[in-house]
From TrEMBL:
Pfam families: ADH_N, ADH_zinc_N
Keywords, in A-Z order: NADP
Electron transport listed as a keyword: no
Annotated InterPro entries: ADH-like_C, ADH-like_N, ER, GroES-like_sf, NAD(P)-bd_dom_sf, Zinc-ADH_QOR/CCCR
Molecular function GO terms recorded: oxidoreductase activity
Protein name according to UniProt: NADPH2:quinone reductase
Keyword set includes NADP: yes
Every Enoyl reductase (ER) domain range: 12-324
Organism this protein belongs to: Actinomycetospora succinea
PANTHER family found in the cross-reference section: QUINONE OXIDOREDUCTASE
Length: 326
């Protein structure tokens, strides 16, 4: 099969190549997926550069997310899954066969059925961003039903996780306020269903959010240090701030203010989420997709041969989702 891979970490142009490798066979409990589109996340290029401290033992085909059709199964997998259209997540986690190839082999639980009428663009956009958003909304909570009539603050509503946090929260019946950095990104957040969109680069941010709500029940946070003053200004008893991204410098945590407010911070890294909690987030994402409640981000397409340019685009902060089509 044709695949993009790297044998050691470093800059995209220096380590990524597109080669022919042997098509993998699924082992017990695994499925093989013929990939029709591969989505690129920030963790994909960060792992490839070596920022996560992971070096390939022989080679690594990158990318955690993708969409395709199951064409082979391993022992113990239901035979009816052959021919099933699926979206993938965490495909390259502990596995050299990520989705930047014509085929990927993953554990059957990581291949989730995709509705027949959903476009490939949606399947390629889901995965890590949507499941992360779902877990941020569920962590320390009482389930998706408990989100009805609550208020959710989503930082960075035009990003991949932010986009799905808005759509999932709205699907659950919550009110959503979100922050963005430009009018272009504001349009994306409004299209996702946000009730209030505020440009955090403009004055009066805290006052505008406080005019919308006295207290939020949950914050889906991409930059805790930068946004802590806003988060604390609209937090109170029972608020959960779910942080899913790190920053160059660790923020100073105002323990007393959080304690007085009875507000909790939860840190979310999908790769270490307990299996039961991960399954809840995946199930909710799948149900929302089946209900038509989730939409793809604006997509920029690259051919597999152009993976270097695709990685560089994501590194430079491309808006929306960059995907490869093998």
């Amino acid at each position: 099969m044709k695949a993009a891979l790297y044998r050691h970490t470093g800059p995209a142009a220096e380590v990524l190549s597109v080669v022919d490798v042997e098509t993998p066979e699924p082992g017990p409990g695994e499925v093989r997926v013929r990939i029709t589109a591969s989505g690129i996340n920030p963790t994909d290029w960060k792992t490839r550069t070596g920022l996560t401290g992971q070096e390939p033992d022989t080679f690594q085909i990158p990318h955690q997310d993708g969409v395709g059709v199951i064409d082979a199964i391993g022992e113990g997998v239901d035979a009816t899954r052959v021919g099933q259209r699926v979206w993938l997540f965490l495909a390259a986690f502990g596995n050299r066969y990520g989705t930047a190839a014509e085929y990927s082999v993953v554990h059957a639980d990581l291949a989730v059925p995709l509705p027949d009428d959903a476009p490939d663009e949606l399947g390629a956009c889901l995965g890590v961003p949507a499941v992360t958003a779902a877990h941020c909304l569920l962590v320390r909570g009482a389930g998706r039903e408990a989100l009805r009539d609550t208020t959710v603050l989503v930082a960075g509503g035009a990003g991949a996780v932010g986009h799905y946090a808005i759509e999932l929260a709205k699907h659950a019946g919550a009110r959503v306020v979100t922050t963005v950095s430009s009018e272009e990104k504001g349009e994306l957040a409004r299209a996702a269903g946000a009730d209030l969109v505020v440009n955090y680069r403009e004055p009066g941010l805290i006052e505008r959010v406080q005019a919308f709500t006295d207290q939020v029940d949950r914050v889906v946070e991409v930059a805790l240090g930068a946004n802590l003053e806003l988060d604390l200004a609209v937090s109170g008893a029972g608020t959960v701030i779910a942080v899913y991204a790190n920053e160059p410098d660790d923020p100073v945590i105002p323990t007393r203010r959080l304690m007085v407010a009875n507000t909790a911070i939860s840190y979310v890294l999908l790769y270490g989420v307990p299996r039961v909690e991960l399954a809840d987030a995946v199930s909710w994402t799948a149900d929302a997709a089946a209900a038509g409640a989730l939409s793809p981000l604006p997509v920029t397409r690259y051919a597999l041969d152009d993976i270097v340019a695709a990685h560089e685009a994501v590194e430079q902060g491309a808006v929306g989702k960059v995907i490869l089509t093998p």
